[in-house]
Amino acid sequence: MKTTLKKYELINVLEHDFKVYQLSLNRPEVLNALNDELMCQLSEVTSLLQDNDARCLVLTGSKKAFAAGGDISEMSGKSYAQVSEEQYVTSIWSKLEQRSIPIVAAVNGLALGGGCELAMLCDIIVAGHGATFGLPETGLGIIPGAGGTQRLIRAVGKAKAMDIILSGKTMTALEAERSGLVSRVVEDEKVVEEALYVAHNIAKRSKPVISMAKRVVDYANESSLKNGMQYEQQNFYATFALEDQKEGMQAFLEKRRPNWQDK
What we know:
Elements lengths: L10 E6 L3 E6 L10 H16 L4 E5 L4 E3 L4 H4 L4 H6 L4 H8 L5 E5 L2 E3 L1 H8 L2 E5 L3 E3 L13 H9 L1 H10 L3 E2 H7 L4 E3 L4 H13 L3 H14 L4 H15 L3 H11 L10
Parallel strand pairs: 2-3, 3-5, 4-6, 5-7, 6-8, 7-10
Antiparallel strand pairs: 1-2, 8-9
Helix pairs in contact: 1-4, 6-7, 10-11
């Protein structure tokens, strides 16, 4: 069921072709620091866009910062009781992670702390040459709390993850690409353009097949190779129950573009 999108104070929403939507974080005065309200708006708009049949999202910030981290002014006064009872951070972030729609992060400038964690929550990261990634939370007397320790080690391995998390070391975009954290690196002014190019290529494919592929790849991070292979096979077999499987293969044989029915 389609829902009319409202305007958001902290998220700018722009619709592109093929039901691709660009979401721009809009707190430039604090380098897009992630506060509760911004994250609530991001969770809400991604849910509405999924309901509106969006096919892919591009998440970006500004030239100076994708997001420079959590909003320390908001976090500093919280007590143990507050963060544990509120399930601070985890409740909203887990909702974002459960979205079936692919998200491409377009990263310029700083992606630190929560900003780095938000980028890692996305399925693909396109970064500008001037982008900087890091998890400096230990310098603030805390540790990453939105998946940073878990996702970073899966992306770059234990040795690099330990160095980044324990010492506060940052990574350039090229270092992040070589380490497996970033998918593509382009000139800073081409970041959003490249991310939209990636998103359009995804959006032109069968929606249920893309959802299956995303789900199976995500499952690989949480399972053994044996279980992952079984899950892959189950989903592979399931594609043969789709009309789009018939259409895709027939279009290939007839040397034409497929006309996806998304079923």
